[in-house]
Structure of SbsA Ig-like domain-containing protein:
Amino acid sequence: MLVRSLILLVLALLSGVSPASSQIRAEGASGRKATTLGALTAYAGFYHLQAVRVRAKLVTDQVGTALLSGETRLLAVGDAATAQVTGDVEVAGTFIDVGRLTHDDQRVSTYGLAALSQKVLQREWPAQGELLVIVVNEVRKAEPFTAPSVRGLALDPLRFDGQSVTVSGRFRGRNLFGDQPASPARSKFDFVIQLADASLWVVGRRPKGQGFDLNVDARVDTGRWLEVQGDVHTSKGLVWIEAIAIRTTQPVSDTTPVETTEVAPPAPPPQVIFSTPTAGEVDVTADARVRLQFSRDMTPQSFKGNVMAAYDAREAAERGIPPASTPPFVANYDQGRRTLELKFSAPFERFRTVIIRLAPGITAFDSQPLAPFELRFTVGG
């Protein structure tokens, strides 16, 4: 019997056109994300309802069909065709954290998620993070990576962990496009490179060299192609390269499999899926811009009057310093990137904790409301 701590992925291989077997499409406009089972479980909120691609070993035992990757074992149920591809497989599907859905969501009845919760957890409904599901569009045999690449490292980091590699990808700044669920937080110069459906972090060196000096917080610098040499590391669902050399290079290509057409169900409520600075970050630069990325397309007009910034008044009282107001700011929403950027007219005061609040009234384009949100970070010296 599975205990409550078991993390479950349901791999429902779908065929035909009946309602019970219709496929679903993730809301993410940036395309499918190559990742790992460990990253899905560690950052379920980020990957919820996103299209993903993972690699694992497909096995069958007395419990049923499962995916194995490293020490992570995830149960797989669904169409019997799942067992027709043995060994290492590459799975494309949509990731769902069932506890984040509402009971009346169409997917609950379509995929029998309430019954699944009762079977696995002995409860009618799971908490967030307890029942994690992939609705699979496709399973195919995983061809081994013959050489390191951004996709190879993203899909199979254990294969390259600790090795010295050289890979190429597009410069994406300090996760300016929400490619990654979190940062390794090694320095303020950490940045992301991306290739096809995959991305990873680069740490240890600034994106600077002969003929280039890129700003990790400037979108104008993104899109440049970089070749990175360094050692691969993976921990807690993140993959990064500790760089020893960075140089510009010519564009490279990598192929992702062609996928079947999918039909979208009703979309979920929007969420903030990434921020910079990150929650709780310290030593933030005084002239930092604040960026918040959303899981869905938002209504730009709904931000008006519902975005607030302030210094922590309680902290000021405890430290015996006079209260102060944050500088005025201008909020701009980038529809293409689903990102809200706050540009302040003057630097923050040093050693102050800044609070950014999104009040009720902010909505997605289909009027689904964003839950109230708060981000806190502390300015450095």
User: Anything to note?
Assistant: Residues 32 and 51 are 5 Å apart (CA to CA). Helices lie at 37-42, 44-47, 106-110, 113-121, 150-155, 157-160, 313-319. The chain has seven helices and 20 strands.
